[in-house]
Specification:
The protein is mainly β. Among the domains are: 157 residues, Immunoglobulin-like (Sandwich); 80 residues, Immunoglobulins (Immunoglobulin-like), CATH 2.60.40; 87 residues, Immunoglobulin-like; 65 residues, no CATH class. Helices cover 11% and strands 29% of the residues. Strands 3, 5, 7, 8, 10, 11, 12 and 14 form an eight-stranded mixed sheet that branches. The longest helix is centred in the C-terminal third of the chain and has 13 residues. It starts with a strand and ends with a helix.
């Protein structure tokens, strides 16, 4: 149902009255609902001798439509006849309103009042401005219009959908905008939130005068910027009705400068701050008391040599940690040189330290069959390994008997390199020592001395500090006796052979032995402390080894290389050998397991070959059965 909404709002003067004699205003209807009738009242204030008016009013015909104009009360004062004419076309309304002369006399009216009312229909959602374009107020003087100066106030009409009140109020302007450059390509913005009668929907962000983006929060990170560049930002707020606030006060920031990349060449070698060893030693294994080095970029390698020639960074033998022991091959006055390197390959200046190695002296005594006083044969600088200990399992004494040389001759042993009287194995080669010979002062060569043991004696073994036992040794009697002891300790499995070869299984067993008896460091190196402990435990005891499982098939010879994809009888024989040892077994069940060997060389066989190669020190351990692996499989 249509109804008339009459609202009259007088506008404050915006122009001084000393310039304008009258004020013209139009009422504001505020917000109306589509379909309502709108009434606008045009009023005058402080006018003198107003006789007629002519108004040219512009409006939006899509939002409102003109209906009619009605006379007001102001020009009707004093009686007489008045005329009101209207014309509306394309959003422009022309209204003329005039008094007529009475008795041939034209008179105007003075004061303030309503001149007329205008009626419109609200058509559709939107806002229409009511604007005075060209207006005239005429006095009664003369036959033509004598204009009365006046000021004019316009208004707007807002039409909303039925049942709703349109929001025409913009949010408050965002305050406290700040901009902070945090990198060469990013500036962070933040501001205080705006307020709005219906709620702020979002914010528009402007960069250098152009809208950049919108956001719903009160912060934003602008990325992808250029280094060392100034950027200026403003922010405005908007609500759901599309009302926008004015833009905020600007904030600016300059992105950071691009960092200059500089390649620094490391030309500074490490410096060895300390390197010391004992001045004397009774063992070929000499403890390194201290070895420290520093470098601007960090030390990456340490090395000890017996030569003063500087090594190169690509040499073998560099260690990532400083060595704690160095093993010489023979006694005497020795020099050691410590070196350090860095990641750039710079080598430090060598630092020298000296040691005098004197091995213990033991003079063996001869025991003659006629109980004569024994005479020394020679003086040795090494410990005699075979000994006259009493075998605990026998009732008789296992005494070593040496046949004496006649008194008119002097015995002069002739021995292998690294051998000495009483040595079963060379301290330099680890191989069995040869028999001795003697020469006569008179030029005759008497019979060689014979060494024998009584039938009731039990052979025993002592470890000497003169012979180092290290990783990689092969066919060594020291290693073989060590493996027997490790087996007896339960640290070296029966599947590992007592073959005199010092590889991974033996090293791991040594580490367990050292840990068991509190020998530090437990690194698998058999030095003086480890040997002393072994001699304490087993120096007078005969040790027998546990036979290792057979790992070769005497009836088969491997003649070709084998790898992934190989097929044949030799693959099946290979699987049978690998399955004998639990540590190299191909599979527990199914194809390839014991009793289910196949003629195909697959990934499971390859993995078992890798374990076999690692166990026996065959490198590279990659699962390829080449000449070295075939040699081991063939029992060599």
């Amino acid at each position: 149902m249509n109804y008339i909404k009459l609202i009259f709002i007088g506008f404050l003067l915006t122009i001084p009255t000393s310039i304008f004699a009258a004020d013209i205003s139009v009422s504001s209807p505020g917000t109306v609902v589509s379909g309502e009738t709108i009434t606008l009242t045009i009023a005058v204030n402080n006018v003198t001798d107003l006789f007629s008016t002519a108004f040219y009013i512009q409006y939006d015909p899509a939002v409102i439509s003109f209906v009619s104009a009605q006379k007001g009360t102001f020009l009707e004062q004093g009686g007489g006849t008045t005329t009101l004419l209207t014309s509306a076309n394309n959003g422009v309304l022309i209204v003329g309103y005039s008094r007529q002369a009475v008795g041939g006399v034209s008179t105007g009216v003075n004061g303030s009042g309503n001149i007329m009312t205008l009626t419109f229909n609200a058509l559709s959602n939107g806002t229409s401005n009511i604007t005075f374009l060209n207006n005239s107020l005429c006095s009664s003087v003369g036959f033509v219009c004598t204009e009365i100066p006046a000021s004019w106030s316009n208004t707007t009409v807002t039409v909303s959908e039925s049942g709703a009140i349109a929001d025409i109020t913009a949010p408050s302007i965002p305050a406290n905008l700040s901009a902070t450059a945090i990198s060469t390509s990013q500036i962070n913005l933040s501001w205080s939130p705006s307020t709005d009668s219906t709620g702020v929907t979002g914010y528009r962000i402007y960069r250098n005068g152009a809208q950049l983006t919108t956001t719903t929060g009160t912060s934003y990170s602008n990325t992808g910027l250029s280094p060392l560049t100034l950027y200026i930002y403003t922010v405005s707020a908007y609500d759901e009705a599309g009302n926008d606030s004015s833009q905020s006060t600007s904030a600016s920031a300059t992105t950071q400068a691009q960092a200059q990349t500089q390649t620094i060449t490391d030309g500074t070698a490490p410096i060895i701050s300390s390197f010391s060893i004992p001045s004397t030693s009774t063992s070929l294994a000499v403890t390194v008391s201290s070895f420290t080095a520093t470098d601007t970029q960090g030390v990456t390698g340490y090395k000890i040599t017996e030569t003063s020639s500087a090594p190169v960074s690509s040499d073998t033998g560099w260690s990532s940690t400083a060595p704690t022991t160095y093993v010489f091959t023979n006694a005497g006055s020795k020099n050691l040189y410590a070196w350090a390197k860095d990641s750039a390959g710079n080598i430090s200046t060598g630092v020298q330290a000296s040691v005098l190695i004197t091995l213990p002296t033991t003079t063996p005594t001869q025991t003659t069959s006629n109980n004569n006083t024994p005479t020394p044969v020679t003086t040795q600088q090494n410990t005699i390994i075979t000994n006259t200990n009493t075998a605990p399992a026998q009732s008789n004494t296992g005494t070593q008997t040496i046949t004496t040389i006649p008194s008119n001759t002097t015995a002069q042993p002739t021995l292998m390199a690294g051998c000495s009287f009483g040595f079963a194995f060379s301290i330099t080669t680890g191989k069995p020592c040869g028999s001795t010979t003697t020469t006569s002062m008179g030029g005759t060569t008497p019979a060689s001395p014979t060494i024998s043991s009584s039938a009731s004696a039990t052979a025993t073994y002592l470890f000497s500090n003169e012979r180092p036992i290290i990783y990689g040794m092969k066919n060594s009697n020291d290693v073989r006796e060590l493996q027997k002891i490790l087996q007896k300790e339960g640290l070296l499995g029966g599947a590992s052979p007592v073959d005199g070869s010092f590889f991974l299984d033996t090293k791991n067993a040594v580490i367990k032995f050292q840990q068991k008896y509190g020998i530090f460091p437990a690194e698998g190196f058999v030095g003086p402390i480890t040997k002393k402990k072994i001699n304490e435990l087993y120096g007078g005891t005969a040790i027998t080894s546990t036979p290792a499982p057979t790992t070769t098939l005497s009836s088969f010879f491997f003649s070709r290389s084998l790898t992934i994809g190989s097929r044949g009888e030799d693959v099946q024989k290979l699987q049978q050998i690998l399955n004998v040892d639990p540590s190299t077994k191909i599979a527990q069940t199914g194809a390839g397991s014991p009793g289910n060997e196949t003629t195909y060389f697959g990934p499971a066989t390859q993995n078992a070959v890798i374990r076999y190669q690692q166990k026996y020190g065959i490198t590279p351990s990659i699962g390829f059965v080449g000449p070295l692996t075939r040699n081991k499989l063939n029992g060599n």
